[in-house]
């Protein structure tokens, strides 16, 4: 079987705002930042401490009978638990109290107070815990969008997807493997919206997804205290090697008007991109008025024009010629 190329994500130490903005950020590539001060959370956030501080606050969680969660086909259910009970269960491998089965997996992605309008903010949903967590000041305060609290069972794997904002993933407790794919490999990832249909990235079904092996895989294992810089549009897939707690910090690196104002999650395409995709759909419907051989001819011309107008200079002319859509 053809093997996917793997590249380790580079690790940087002694990173401050100046180093980040000068040496790391302009590259627009993932980077592990080790040794950045995250606050007292690294020592304090035990299961007992989290339960004590979170208390009986009700949280909505994902629960699944299998550790590989699939958002496209919804192989999980949403349930509600007091926070301290959720943390207790998520830290266990076998449960005496459960919803579906004794080895079910749990996942929390914190939400805003009004889930339809407000982004998650650790300081608002969990103010006591927010006092322990120091958000690295690698961006301007007015660029801040959200701080998302994440807790997952050991073995939990989340689907491959992209976000439209830059973010820092802070691993506070436990170890987590992260696999990432460049935006320029999007054609090999079999996208449905912002998510990849390839669920098992370690043993993919190459009969269904033959192009997947062409995507270069970047990989790292985060340890407690590590920060992972995930540039916007980079696809990422996470696997919890241990029960783990983390915080995602998202910020707007484009002008604020570029983003959908009704998007509390930060994963809707920028307004201009949405308009362009809608225009493309209208153009394709117009081509449907032509016979098949004409659609093929003008479709190829459209693809060529799009490539010439939009592809970055770092894509070689050879890869531009090869980057046609995989056969359906």
UniProtKB/TrEMBL annotation:
Q: Give the gene that encodes this protein.
A: tyw5
Question: What range(s) does the JmjC domain occupy?
Answer: 106-268
Q: What is this protein called?
A: tRNA wybutosine-synthesizing protein 5
Coiled-coil region list: none
What's its job?
A: tRNA hydroxylase that acts as a component of the wybutosine biosynthesis pathway. Wybutosine is a hyper modified guanosine with a tricyclic base found at the 3'-position adjacent to the anticodon of eukaryotic phenylalanine tRNA. Catalyzes the hydroxylation of 7-(a-amino-a-carboxypropyl)wyosine (yW-72) into undermodified hydroxywybutosine (OHyW*). OHyW* being further transformed into hydroxywybutosine (OHyW) by LCMT2/TYW4. OHyW is a derivative of wybutosine found in higher eukaryotes.
Q: In which pathway does it act?
A: tRNA modification; wybutosine-tRNA(Phe) biosynthesis
Q: Which domain of life is it from?
A: Eukaryota
Record key words, sorted = Dioxygenase, Iron, Metal-binding, Oxidoreductase, tRNA processing
Catalytic activity, as annotated: 7-[(3S)-3-amino-3-carboxypropyl]wyosine(37) in tRNA(Phe) + 2-oxoglutarate + O2 = 7-(2-hydroxy-3-amino-3-carboxypropyl)wyosine(37) in tRNA(Phe) + succinate + CO2
Q: Which Gene3D superfamilies match?
A: 6.10.140.1470, Cupin
Identify the cofactor(s): Fe(2+)
Pfam family of this protein, just one?
Answer: Cupin_8
- Do you know which PANTHER family this protein is assigned to? HYPOXIA-INDUCIBLE FACTOR 1 ALPHA INHIBITOR-RELATED, TRNA WYBUTOSINE-SYNTHESIZING PROTEIN 5
Keyword RNA-binding listed: no
What InterPro entries would the database entry show?
Cupin_8 (IPR041667), JmjC_dom (IPR003347)
The GO terms describing molecular function are:
metal ion binding; tRNA binding; tRNA(Phe) (7-(3-amino-3-carboxypropyl)wyosine37-C2)-hydroxylase activity
How this chain assembles, per its entry, is:
Homodimer.
Q: Which family does it belong to?
A: Belongs to the TYW5 family.
Q: One biological-process term from Gene Ontology?
A: wybutosine biosynthetic process
Q: What class of enzyme is it?
A: oxidoreductase
Q: What is its EC number?
A: 1.14.11.42
């Amino acid at each position: 079987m053809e093997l996917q190329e793997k590249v380790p994500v580079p690790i940087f130490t002694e990173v401050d705002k100046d180093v980040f903005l000068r040496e790391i950020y302009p590259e627009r590539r993932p980077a592990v930042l080790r040794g950045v001060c995250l606050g007292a959370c690294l020592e304090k956030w035990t299961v007992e401490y989290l339960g004590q501080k979170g208390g009986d606050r009700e949280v909505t969680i994902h629960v699944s009978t299998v550790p590989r969660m699939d958002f496209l086909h919804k192989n999980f259910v949403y349930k509600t638990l007091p926070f301290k009970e959720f943390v207790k269960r998520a830290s266990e491998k076998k449960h005496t109290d459960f919803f579906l089965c004794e080895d079910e997996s749990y996942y929390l992605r914190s939400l805003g107070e009004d889930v339809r309008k407000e982004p998650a903010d650790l300081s608002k949903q969990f103010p006591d815990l927010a006092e322990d967590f120091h958000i690295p000041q690698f961006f301007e305060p007015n660029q801040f969008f959200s701080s998302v609290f994440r807790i997952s069972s050991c073995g939990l794997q989340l689907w491959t997807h992209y976000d439209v904002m830059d973010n820092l993933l802070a691993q506070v407790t436990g170890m987590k493997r992260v696999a990432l794919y460049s935006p320029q490999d999007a054609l090999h990832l079999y996208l449905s919206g912002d998510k990849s249909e390839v669920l098992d990235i370690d043993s993919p079904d190459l009969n269904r997804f033959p192009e997947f092996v062409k995507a270069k895989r970047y990989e790292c294992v985060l340890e407690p205290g590590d920060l992972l810089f995930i540039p916007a549009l980079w696809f990422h897939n996470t696997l919890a090697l241990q029960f783990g707690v983390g915080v995602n910090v998202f910020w707007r690196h484009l002008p604020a008007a570029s983003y959908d104002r009704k998007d509390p999650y930060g994963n809707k395409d920028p307004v201009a991109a949405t308009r362009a995709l809608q225009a493309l759909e209208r153009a394709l419907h117009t081509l449907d008025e032509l016979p098949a051989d004409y659609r093929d001819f003008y479709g190829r011309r459209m693809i060529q024009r799009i490539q010439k107008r939009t592809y970055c200079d770092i894509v070689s002319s050879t890869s531009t010629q090869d980057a046609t859509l995989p056969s359906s």
